[in-house]
Amino acid sequence: MITDTGIVTIHDLENNGAKLTCHKVDAQEFLAHPSGRWSASPNEKKTSVRDAKSEKIDDDSGEAMKLKAMANKVLKAMAKGYRLLPK
Q1: How sure is the predictor about 32, in pLDDT bands with cuts at 50, 70 and 90?
Q2: Torsion of CA 78, 75, 84, 80, to 10 degrees
Q3: pTM beyond 0.85
Q4: How far is C-alpha 86 from the chain's CA centre?
Q5: Which of 9, 15, 53, 44 is nearest to 30 (CA)?
Q6: Which residues of 24-58 are buried (b: 16+ CB within 10 A; e: fewer)?
Q7: What string of H, E and C letters represents the secondary structure of the chain?
């Protein structure tokens, strides 16, 4: 089991501690935002990404990285094939 996937859960303090799952890099930006809306804890204000709960996964097929490496044109063609985009 992979324990540090780079994905963490942070909380929206203005929305009853609603969870947001995102990459650590994005979480750092949210937590540092001047609004103070985001926290690594649902109950108290914590602005360090180290305090955010890491998500665990059973395996990593690498599919996400493959998709990120594809050109936009190829991704659009795939989405049309799956009928995710209008033709």
Answers
A1: very high
A2: -50
A3: no
A4: 27
A5: 9
A6: beebbebbeeeeeebbbbbeeebbebeebeeeeee
A7: CECCCCEEEEEEHHHCCEEEEEEHHHHHHHHHCCCCCEECCCCCCCCCHHHCEECCECCCCCHHHHHHHCCHHHHHHHHHHCCCCCC
